[in-house]
Amino acid sequence: MKLRIWTIAIVAGSLLIPSPASGAAAQTQAPDTTNEKAYDASMPREQQIALALSAAPAEVSGNATVYILGPQGYEKVRQGTNGFSCIVGRSFAKPTETTIAPMCYDAEGSRTLLLVSLRTEELRAAGKSEAEIKADIANGYKDGRFKAPAKPGFLYMMSSKNRLGPDPKTGETVGFPPHVMFYAPYMTAKDLGYSQQELDANPYMGLANPGEPDALIVVIPAR
Question: Which of 59, 164, 189, 223 has the most CB atoms at less than 10 Å from its CB?
Fold first, then answer.
């Protein structure tokens, strides 16, 4: 999943989403990735696990299925009991720089969007180009191998170690605050009620992957 940088994000008001500072919803301590410019299979196993688990409150990630990136793609290292699945997603900003995106899908996301992530890394491990991967995923949605979420749900990206992008000005990844993402298949920024002029100036407006089956509304919890 590729999350672009947008100008305006939706800020949670009355939504009961735990802040990273909440003691009752403390998260797994994420490894220090401040100087990391890429996520790949060379990252030590335990560091990958800790990074993936840092995406959600410990009460959630502690019972989730966990995947890490290996030489052949994602590998399941723990079977969970609550329907959630935690991984570290990535996309390439540059040939030697990737996003670092710890995330925990709920049961619906694990049934649908997670399969796309698994397939993407399977193809990368097989040496496919990013263009070939994009085409395979698009064809997968057309032929029914992949499906958009069929009911409301969300994924956690509450890690303090998010590095997303690329930044449209620099082309590099940047730190991004903890947030959650709600499934909004095929939604566009226009569906949020903005004028065409506003859309042209700020095309994402709190949306990741607008117009796609994996479109997501982004919510940054109030501190």
Answer: 164
Q: What are phi and psi of 145, to 5 degrees?
A: -65, -35
Residues 80/104, Cβ–Cβ less than 8 Å: no
- Polymer length in residues for the chain: 223
Distance CA 165, CA 64 (A): 26
Residue pair 39/88 in contact (Cβ under 8 Å)? The answer is yes
* Model pLDDT for residues 141-181, shown as the tens digit of each residue: 999 999 999 999 999 999 999 999 888 888 899 999 999 99
The rounded distance, in Å, linking the Cα atoms of 51 and 31 is 6
pLDDT tens, position by position, 20-60: 434 334 455 666 655 578 999 999 999 999 999 999 999 99
**Alpha carbon distances (Å) from 78 to 14, 68, 81, 111, 193:** 34, 10, 10, 17, 42
End-to-end CA distance of the chain: 26
CA distance 39 to 43: 7
pTM above 0.85, yes or no: no
What is the C-alpha separation between 143 and 11, in angstroms, rounded? 36
